[in-house]
Design a protein that fits this description.
It is a single chain. The strands form 2 sheets. A 4-stranded mixed beta sheet has the order 3-1-4-5. Strands 2, 6, 7 and 8 form a 4-stranded antiparallel beta sheet that branches. By secondary structure, it is of the alpha+beta class. It has 2 domains: about 5-60, lambda repressor-like DNA-binding domains (434 Repressor (Amino-terminal Domain), Orthogonal Bundle), CATH 1.10.260; about 80-180, Umud Fragment, subunit A. A hairpin with a 2-residue loop joins β6 (about 155-160) and β7. The protein starts with a helix and ends with a strand. It has helices at about 5-15, 20-25, 30-35, 45-55, 60, 115-120; strands at about 85-95, 100, 105-110, 120-130, 140-145, 155-160, 165-170, 175-180. The protein is elongated and about 80 Å long.
Length: about 180
């Protein structure tokens, strides 16, 4: 099977006419696609574009991979790299009885954060204890945005001197309660 045959087969499998594929590729007429399918010179950049439009791999079009003509569907999407930011990881915070929060940020983790404000106020903390089980388990890494307010039902990290706790915030007219789960 030639590269042109593979393009034609993939086009037909997608249900595109030569004219439809030509439009998607930016050509003015179907004759350009006809030439591609008849194995005229295909620029390397066009092979990638054709593969993307037809949901196949460039390797399949080139004849290098006969086994997998269709790209596997995935929920993975490319994120803008300018929003991938390194956030410090602190060891640790207690979900249970107090355990001193250790402020050594020896580790960093990349997170997708768009806002500069959120980035400046975000840390990650490793949880010790299981009072928030099953939602938060011993050893989980949680992202925390530093702020001075919380609403009833929010999961918060409360600093109390040298201790820190992960708890559910419950506010009422009588005051504040910290709960589990």
């Amino acid at each position: 099977m030639t590269m042109g045959d593979r393009v034609k087969a993939a086009r037909q499998k997608k249900g595109y006419t030569q004219e439809e594929l030509a439009q998607k590729l930016g050509y003015k007429s179907r004759s350009s696609v006809n030439k591609i399918e008849k194995e005229r010179d295909i620029p390397r950049s066009m092979i990638v574009k054709i593969a993307e439009i037809l949901d196949v791999t460039p390797a399949y079009l080139m004849g290098w991979d006969e086994r997998k003509p269709v790209k596997e569907k995935s929920n993975v999407r490319k994120m803008p790299t300018e929003f991938i930011r390194l956030v410090p990881v602190f060891e640790s915070v207690s979900a249970g009885f107090g355990l001193g929060a250790v402020n050594s940020d020896k580790e960093y983790i990349p997170l997708f954060i768009q806002s500069d404000y959120e980035y400046e106020h975000t840390i990650c903390v490793r949880v010790c204890g299981d009072s928030m089980h099953p939602q938060i388990q011993d050893g989980d890494l949680i992202q925390v945005i530093k702020q001075n307010t919380a609403e009833t039902g929010d999961i918060v990290v409360i600093l109390d001197g040298d201790d820190a706790y992960v708890k559910r915030f419950i506010g009422s007219k009588q005051g504040i309660t910290l709960g589990n789960h």
